[in-house]
Amino acid sequence: MTKTKFFAASVLALGTMAGGAFAAEDCGDLKVAEFNWASGELMANVDAIILEEGFGCDVELVNGGTNTLFASMNEKGEPQIAPELWTNAVREPLAKAVEDGRMIKLLDGPITGLGEGWWVTPSFAAEHPELDTVEKLIEHPELFPYSEDKSKGAFMGCPAGWGCQPANANMFRAFDMEEKGWVLVDPGSAAGLEGSIAKGAEREQPWFGYYWNPTAVIGKYKLVPLAFETEWAGSENWDGCIVKSESECMDPKPSSWTKSEVSTVVTADVSDIAPESVLTYLKSRVFPGEVMNEMLVYMTDNQAIGEDAAYEFLAKHEEVWTQWVTPEVAEKVKDAL
After folding, report:
1. When you count CB atoms within 10 A of the terminal residue's CB, does the N or C end of the chain come out lower?
2. CATH superfamily of 115-248
3. What is the distance between the alpha carbons of residues 24 and 35, in angstroms, rounded to a whole number?
4. CA atoms of 146 and 42, how far apart (whole Å)
5. Is 101 exposed, middle or buried (0-12, 13-18, 19+ CB in 10 A)?
6. The dihedral sign for the CA sequence 27, 291, 212, 136
7. Domain 29-112+261-336: which topology?
8. CA–CA separation, 97 vs 28, rounded Å?
9. CA nearest 233: which of 174, 308, 320?
10. Which residues, 6+ apart, have CB-to-CB distance to 99 below 8 Å?
11. Cα pseudo-dihedral 304, 310, 316, 320, rounded to 10
12. What is the pLDDT of residues 213-267, one digit of tens each?
């Protein structure tokens, strides 16, 4: 039995002995999507603990990827709660599900500072504060010498086969970076990409390339995002060209990076299972980006699973999560910890 299940059983037993003390705020069985990346695991487990200990729900975590768990919610009505749904991947079917009344978007942006884009090391940002946008920086490839040809600048893209690989390749072309003296470097793997960042940050050497937030890498190495001066060139350019293969994107237009949209989404029947106070909690639950990255570093350094990280977060960051719930609920959770 997991720690969360043990505590849930204890709370429910106490409720029974108290002669139906929880009846006014009765909460039933809920399944929560535990997405198979670190922040997804952490958020799901935090929700599970708070919903069980604070609200008396019986929670089951369902692990999986975005498309699989969303399809299950859409077709079967469970899991009922998706804490961190990256909605760009399911934009059209989600819109249809919301329109048809099967799902509800409770909260946009459950983590602050979310997004993808191009980053530099903190040492470079400190040394060159004037180069604070993509457009300014790409005029200076000489500041990022490529190891195999020092006359060229190195831009670190995504490994071949990753979904972000064509986007970076096409943005590289859209900004005429090859003509400006840059080389698009394939890191080869996740380890290669992370290793290049670690080397640049730890040795205080220039590094310029793609990454996303929240991640342990951003949290550990404090990478600095670059703004785009170029305005968003529209979804036809991005969805119809930038994210496709080079053969399908003959004329990519310069653009700012597409906005990453992340939401907490629930099935429409959650209100039949849980009290309104549970929905209020889910609407209020926003993780500060710096705290999330700190927790992802903790998970990496300690090889911690989502449940362990959730208990660490609840113990260490009361100032954050107690703002999401009433004092009474907070005390129940703290007593369980």
Report:
1. N
2. Glycine betaine-binding periplasmic protein; domain 2 (3.40.190.100)
3. 32
4. 37
5. exposed
6. positive
7. D-Maltodextrin-Binding Protein; domain 2 (3.40.190)
8. 23
9. 174
10. none
11. 140
12. 999 999 999 999 999 999 999 999 999 999 999 999 999 999 999 998 999 999 9
**Which residues neighbour 195 within 8 Å (Cβ) at sequence distance 6 or greater?**
187
CA atoms within 13 A on the CB side of 67: 1
Count the neighbouring beta carbons within 10 Å of the beta carbon of residue 173: 19
| Residue 266 CB coordination number (10 Å) | 28
Residue with tokens 């006014």: 24
| Residue 163 pLDDT class (50, 70, 90 cuts) | confident
pLDDT(286) > 90 = yes
**Beta bridge pairs of residue 243:** none
Strand order from edge to edge, sheet including 103-108: 58-64, 29-35, 81-86, 262-267, 103-108
Considering Cα of 62, then 65, then 68, then 71, what sign does the dihedral take?
A: positive
Residue 227 DSSP code: B
Distance CA 36, CA 38 (A): 7
